[in-house]
Specification:
Structural class: mainly alpha
Helix content: over 70%
Number of strands: 0
Strand content: under 5%
Order of helices and strands: HHHHHH
Length: 124
């Protein structure tokens, strides 16, 4: 029963993702859908429903497109010195399972801000 529900849920989520055209424009909503997909036990469902592989393919494709778009949007915000955009986009990385990528990008952004401010940080 649980597995059947998960199978139906994954198909529903795939159709929702496909129909909404996930990209970083829809930030939090798209990241939320991808987060739900990442939490589904794919192995469990695949053992029950062979048809679910197509749903997972749609979801995986949406995840990769979203991450690519997110990287581009984050990089553009950095280039344009858009701090609100940087803050908005960096918060999405953990939701899509890319916490380390987000931390790395944000650390580089902060380092460039410190460097351009002329502050000389010395540690004793």
């Amino acid at each position: 029963r649980r597995e059947d529900g998960l199978s139906k849920y994954s198909k529903f989520l795939a159709s929702k993702v496909a129909s909404s055209g996930i990209n970083a424009e829809y930030g939090e909503t798209a990241a939320s859908h991808i987060n739900k997909y990442l939490q589904i036990d794919k192995k469990l469902i695949s053992n029950i429903d062979d048809d679910v592989d197509g749903s997972f393919a749609v979801l995986k494709d949406a995840e990769l497109r979203f991450i690519n778009n997110l990287n581009n949007r984050f990089d553009s915000a950095v280039k344009e010195n858009d701090e609100k955009g940087v803050d908005r986009f960096v918060k999405l990385y953990p939701l899509v399972g890319r916490r380390e990528d987000g931390l790395s990008k944000y650390s580089k952004f902060l380092a460039s801000k410190v460097a351009s401010s002329g502050i000389n940080a010395e540690y004793g």
